Amino acid sequence: MTEKQTFWDHLDELRSCLVKIVVATVLLGVVAFFFKDELFTVILAPKYDDFVTYRLFESIAARFSVPMDGLDFQVSLINTELAQQFIVHVKMAMFCAFLLVSPYALYQLFRFVSPALYSNERKYVVRVVGGGYVMFLMGVALSYFLIFPLTFRFLGTYQVSAEVQNFISLSSYIDTLMVLCFLLGIVFEIPILCWLFAKLGFLTAEFMRRYRKHAIVIVLIVAAVITPTSDAFTLLLVSGPIYLLYEVSVLIVAHTEKNSE
Protein backbone atom coordinates (compact mmCIF):
# COMPACT_ATOMS: atom_id res chain seq x y z
CA MET A 1 0.00 0.00 0.00
CA THR A 2 1.49 3.29 -1.08
CA GLU A 3 1.92 6.02 1.48
CA LYS A 4 -0.43 8.97 1.07
CA GLN A 5 1.46 12.04 -0.08
CA THR A 6 1.21 15.40 1.63
CA PHE A 7 0.56 18.74 -0.04
CA TRP A 8 4.29 19.49 0.05
CA ASP A 9 5.09 16.15 -1.62
CA HIS A 10 2.72 17.04 -4.46
CA LEU A 11 4.29 20.48 -4.66
CA ASP A 12 7.75 18.93 -4.97
CA GLU A 13 6.50 16.66 -7.75
CA LEU A 14 4.99 19.60 -9.58
CA ARG A 15 8.20 21.58 -9.22
CA SER A 16 10.21 18.62 -10.55
CA CYS A 17 7.81 18.34 -13.49
CA LEU A 18 8.09 22.05 -14.32
CA VAL A 19 11.89 21.98 -14.01
CA LYS A 20 12.08 19.11 -16.52
CA ILE A 21 9.88 21.04 -18.94
CA VAL A 22 11.94 24.22 -18.58
CA VAL A 23 15.24 22.35 -19.01
CA ALA A 24 13.95 20.55 -22.10
CA THR A 25 12.72 23.85 -23.58
CA VAL A 26 16.04 25.59 -22.95
CA LEU A 27 18.05 22.70 -24.41
CA LEU A 28 15.92 22.57 -27.55
CA GLY A 29 16.09 26.36 -27.76
CA VAL A 30 19.90 26.21 -27.70
CA VAL A 31 19.88 23.55 -30.43
CA ALA A 32 17.50 25.63 -32.57
CA PHE A 33 19.67 28.71 -31.95
CA PHE A 34 22.69 27.02 -33.54
CA PHE A 35 20.65 26.02 -36.61
CA LYS A 36 20.11 29.65 -37.53
CA ASP A 37 20.23 29.24 -41.30
CA GLU A 38 17.75 26.36 -41.37
CA LEU A 39 15.48 28.09 -38.85
CA PHE A 40 15.24 31.38 -40.71
CA THR A 41 14.97 29.70 -44.10
CA VAL A 42 11.62 28.43 -42.84
CA ILE A 43 10.65 31.64 -41.04
CA LEU A 44 11.46 33.97 -43.94
CA ALA A 45 10.09 31.71 -46.69
CA PRO A 46 6.70 33.51 -46.97
CA LYS A 47 8.44 36.75 -47.99
CA TYR A 48 9.57 35.24 -51.31
CA ASP A 49 7.33 34.89 -54.35
CA ASP A 50 8.29 31.23 -54.82
CA PHE A 51 6.72 30.20 -51.49
CA VAL A 52 4.62 27.04 -51.78
CA THR A 53 1.32 28.85 -51.12
CA TYR A 54 1.93 31.40 -53.86
CA ARG A 55 2.95 28.68 -56.33
CA LEU A 56 -0.20 26.71 -55.46
CA PHE A 57 -2.50 29.69 -56.12
CA GLU A 58 -0.57 30.44 -59.30
CA SER A 59 -1.02 26.87 -60.58
CA ILE A 60 -4.74 26.91 -59.73
CA ALA A 61 -5.19 30.23 -61.52
CA ALA A 62 -3.30 28.93 -64.56
CA ARG A 63 -5.38 25.74 -64.65
CA PHE A 64 -8.63 27.72 -64.83
CA SER A 65 -7.13 30.46 -67.03
CA VAL A 66 -7.69 33.11 -64.38
CA PRO A 67 -5.35 36.11 -64.70
CA MET A 68 -3.39 36.97 -61.56
CA ASP A 69 -1.58 40.26 -61.09
CA GLY A 70 1.49 40.68 -58.97
CA LEU A 71 2.73 37.09 -59.12
CA ASP A 72 6.29 38.37 -58.91
CA PHE A 73 6.89 40.53 -55.87
CA GLN A 74 9.73 41.53 -53.61
CA VAL A 75 9.49 42.94 -50.11
CA SER A 76 12.62 43.98 -48.24
CA LEU A 77 12.98 43.53 -44.49
CA ILE A 78 15.02 46.06 -42.57
CA ASN A 79 16.41 46.22 -39.06
CA THR A 80 16.35 49.55 -37.22
CA GLU A 81 17.57 48.59 -33.74
CA LEU A 82 21.04 47.60 -32.64
CA ALA A 83 20.23 44.35 -30.82
CA GLN A 84 17.00 43.50 -32.64
CA GLN A 85 18.38 40.77 -34.91
CA PHE A 86 19.92 38.91 -31.97
CA ILE A 87 16.71 39.29 -29.95
CA VAL A 88 14.65 37.97 -32.87
CA HIS A 89 17.05 35.04 -33.23
CA VAL A 90 16.63 34.09 -29.57
CA LYS A 91 12.86 34.63 -29.66
CA MET A 92 12.33 32.40 -32.68
CA ALA A 93 14.65 29.70 -31.31
CA MET A 94 12.58 29.56 -28.12
CA PHE A 95 9.31 29.59 -30.06
CA CYS A 96 10.56 26.64 -32.11
CA ALA A 97 11.58 24.89 -28.87
CA PHE A 98 8.10 25.53 -27.44
CA LEU A 99 6.48 23.78 -30.38
CA LEU A 100 8.89 20.84 -30.22
CA VAL A 101 8.79 20.36 -26.45
CA SER A 102 4.99 20.59 -26.14
CA PRO A 103 4.35 16.81 -26.38
CA TYR A 104 6.93 16.15 -23.67
CA ALA A 105 5.49 18.93 -21.50
CA LEU A 106 1.97 17.51 -21.86
CA TYR A 107 3.26 14.05 -21.01
CA GLN A 108 4.94 15.33 -17.83
CA LEU A 109 1.82 17.21 -16.74
CA PHE A 110 -0.33 14.16 -17.44
CA ARG A 111 1.98 12.01 -15.31
CA PHE A 112 1.55 14.51 -12.49
CA VAL A 113 -2.26 14.55 -12.52
CA SER A 114 -2.98 10.96 -13.62
CA PRO A 115 -2.75 9.38 -10.12
CA ALA A 116 -5.72 11.51 -9.04
CA LEU A 117 -7.89 10.41 -11.99
CA TYR A 118 -10.12 7.40 -12.50
CA SER A 119 -9.43 5.16 -15.49
CA ASN A 120 -12.32 6.60 -17.54
CA GLU A 121 -11.17 10.14 -16.70
CA ARG A 122 -7.64 9.31 -17.88
CA LYS A 123 -9.11 8.17 -21.20
CA TYR A 124 -10.87 11.51 -21.70
CA VAL A 125 -7.80 13.47 -20.60
CA VAL A 126 -5.64 11.62 -23.16
CA ARG A 127 -8.16 12.40 -25.89
CA VAL A 128 -8.47 16.06 -24.93
CA VAL A 129 -4.71 16.61 -24.57
CA GLY A 130 -3.76 14.64 -27.68
CA GLY A 131 -6.52 16.14 -29.80
CA GLY A 132 -5.80 19.61 -28.45
CA TYR A 133 -2.13 19.39 -29.42
CA VAL A 134 -2.96 18.16 -32.93
CA MET A 135 -5.50 20.96 -33.38
CA PHE A 136 -2.99 23.53 -32.10
CA LEU A 137 -0.45 22.39 -34.71
CA MET A 138 -3.14 22.55 -37.39
CA GLY A 139 -3.84 26.15 -36.40
CA VAL A 140 -0.14 27.02 -36.56
CA ALA A 141 0.16 25.31 -39.96
CA LEU A 142 -2.88 27.15 -41.35
CA SER A 143 -1.46 30.46 -40.19
CA TYR A 144 2.01 29.76 -41.61
CA PHE A 145 0.89 28.36 -44.97
CA LEU A 146 -2.21 30.48 -45.65
CA ILE A 147 -3.18 33.33 -43.31
CA PHE A 148 0.23 34.94 -42.83
CA PRO A 149 1.52 34.58 -46.43
CA LEU A 150 -1.62 36.10 -47.95
CA THR A 151 -1.64 38.86 -45.33
CA PHE A 152 2.03 39.62 -45.89
CA ARG A 153 1.70 39.56 -49.67
CA PHE A 154 -1.30 41.89 -49.64
CA LEU A 155 -0.07 44.40 -47.06
CA GLY A 156 3.62 44.13 -47.94
CA THR A 157 2.99 45.03 -51.58
CA TYR A 158 0.15 47.51 -51.06
CA GLN A 159 1.08 51.06 -52.04
CA VAL A 160 -0.85 54.32 -51.88
CA SER A 161 1.58 55.66 -54.48
CA ALA A 162 4.44 54.30 -56.58
CA GLU A 163 6.62 56.94 -54.94
CA VAL A 164 6.24 55.29 -51.52
CA GLN A 165 8.33 52.14 -51.19
CA ASN A 166 7.61 49.43 -48.62
CA PHE A 167 10.40 48.48 -46.22
CA ILE A 168 8.98 46.19 -43.55
CA SER A 169 10.84 46.02 -40.25
CA LEU A 170 12.11 42.62 -39.14
CA SER A 171 10.37 42.94 -35.77
CA SER A 172 7.03 43.71 -37.47
CA TYR A 173 7.37 40.64 -39.69
CA ILE A 174 8.34 38.32 -36.82
CA ASP A 175 5.75 39.65 -34.36
CA THR A 176 2.93 39.32 -36.89
CA LEU A 177 4.00 35.78 -37.77
CA MET A 178 4.27 34.67 -34.14
CA VAL A 179 1.02 36.28 -33.01
CA LEU A 180 -0.98 34.82 -35.88
CA CYS A 181 0.53 31.34 -35.46
CA PHE A 182 0.06 31.23 -31.70
CA LEU A 183 -3.45 32.69 -31.61
CA LEU A 184 -4.70 30.56 -34.52
CA GLY A 185 -3.35 27.55 -32.64
CA ILE A 186 -5.36 28.57 -29.58
CA VAL A 187 -8.51 29.23 -31.64
CA PHE A 188 -8.26 25.76 -33.17
CA GLU A 189 -8.98 24.32 -29.72
CA ILE A 190 -12.66 25.25 -30.18
CA PRO A 191 -13.79 21.81 -31.47
CA ILE A 192 -11.99 20.05 -28.60
CA LEU A 193 -13.61 22.28 -25.99
CA CYS A 194 -17.04 21.89 -27.59
CA TRP A 195 -16.63 18.09 -27.58
CA LEU A 196 -15.64 18.17 -23.90
CA PHE A 197 -18.56 20.44 -22.95
CA ALA A 198 -20.94 18.19 -24.89
CA LYS A 199 -19.60 15.15 -23.04
CA LEU A 200 -20.21 16.93 -19.74
CA GLY A 201 -23.71 17.92 -20.82
CA PHE A 202 -23.02 21.66 -20.83
CA LEU A 203 -23.48 22.20 -24.58
CA THR A 204 -25.96 21.00 -27.21
CA ALA A 205 -26.02 21.22 -31.00
CA GLU A 206 -29.50 22.75 -30.88
CA PHE A 207 -28.18 25.60 -28.69
CA MET A 208 -25.28 26.24 -31.09
CA ARG A 209 -27.61 26.30 -34.12
CA ARG A 210 -30.07 28.65 -32.38
CA TYR A 211 -27.35 31.18 -31.60
CA ARG A 212 -25.47 30.87 -34.90
CA LYS A 213 -26.02 34.57 -35.76
CA HIS A 214 -24.63 35.59 -32.38
CA ALA A 215 -21.67 33.29 -32.99
CA ILE A 216 -20.88 35.07 -36.27
CA VAL A 217 -20.68 38.41 -34.43
CA ILE A 218 -18.46 36.86 -31.75
CA VAL A 219 -16.24 35.31 -34.43
CA LEU A 220 -15.73 38.72 -36.05
CA ILE A 221 -14.93 40.27 -32.65
CA VAL A 222 -12.45 37.51 -31.81
CA ALA A 223 -10.83 37.80 -35.25
CA ALA A 224 -10.52 41.57 -34.78
CA VAL A 225 -8.89 41.08 -31.37
CA ILE A 226 -6.34 38.47 -32.48
CA THR A 227 -5.52 40.17 -35.80
CA PRO A 228 -2.28 42.10 -35.20
CA THR A 229 -2.47 44.16 -38.41
CA SER A 230 -5.98 45.62 -37.83
CA ASP A 231 -6.93 45.61 -41.53
CA ALA A 232 -10.16 44.30 -43.11
CA PHE A 233 -8.35 41.83 -45.39
CA THR A 234 -6.68 39.95 -42.54
CA LEU A 235 -9.85 40.21 -40.44
CA LEU A 236 -11.89 38.37 -43.08
CA LEU A 237 -9.07 35.92 -43.73
CA VAL A 238 -8.90 34.98 -40.04
CA SER A 239 -12.66 35.00 -39.34
CA GLY A 240 -13.37 32.51 -42.15
CA PRO A 241 -11.50 29.55 -40.60
CA ILE A 242 -12.84 30.40 -37.13
CA TYR A 243 -16.43 30.30 -38.36
CA LEU A 244 -15.69 27.03 -40.18
CA LEU A 245 -14.43 25.64 -36.87
CA TYR A 246 -17.73 26.67 -35.28
CA GLU A 247 -19.71 24.74 -37.89
CA VAL A 248 -17.45 21.71 -37.47
CA SER A 249 -17.99 21.98 -33.70
CA VAL A 250 -21.77 21.88 -34.25
CA LEU A 251 -21.38 18.58 -36.12
CA ILE A 252 -19.05 17.20 -33.42
CA VAL A 253 -21.49 18.12 -30.65
CA ALA A 254 -24.42 16.58 -32.56
CA HIS A 255 -22.43 13.37 -33.10
CA THR A 256 -21.44 13.29 -29.42
CA GLU A 257 -25.09 13.71 -28.36
CA LYS A 258 -26.15 10.91 -30.69
CA ASN A 259 -23.56 8.50 -29.27
CA SER A 260 -24.56 9.41 -25.69
CA GLU A 261 -28.19 8.42 -26.19
Outline the structure in words.
The protein has 261 residues and is mainly alpha-helical. Helices cover 75% and strands 2% of the residues. The chain has 10 helices and 2 strands. The chain has helices at residues 7-34, 36-43, 52-63, 84-113, 119-157, 170-187, 190-199, 205-210, 212-226, 232-260, and strands at 76-78, 167-169. The protein has a two-stranded parallel ribbon. α4 packs parallel to α6, α7 runs parallel beside α10 (232-260) and α9 crosses α10. The model has no long low-confidence stretch (mean pLDDT 86).
Give the structure's gist in a few sentences.
By secondary structure, the protein is mainly alpha-helical. The protein is built from ten helices and two strands; from the N terminus they run H-H-H-E-H-H-E-H-H-H-H-H.
Q: Percent of residues in beta strands? A: under 5%
Class of secondary structure makeup: mainly alpha
Largest sheet: 2 strands, parallel
Number of strands: 2
Query: Radius of gyration, Cα only, in angstroms?
Result: 22 Å
- Please write the string of helix (H) and strand (E) elements: HHHEHHEHHHHH
Mean pLDDT, to the nearest integer, reads 86
Q: Are there runs of 5+ residues with pLDDT below 50, and where?
A: none
| Neighbour order of strands in the largest sheet | 1-2
User: What's the helical proportion of residues?
Assistant: over 70%
Q: Helical element count?
A: 10
* Overall 3D form: flat
End-to-end Cα distance, whole Å, is 39 Å
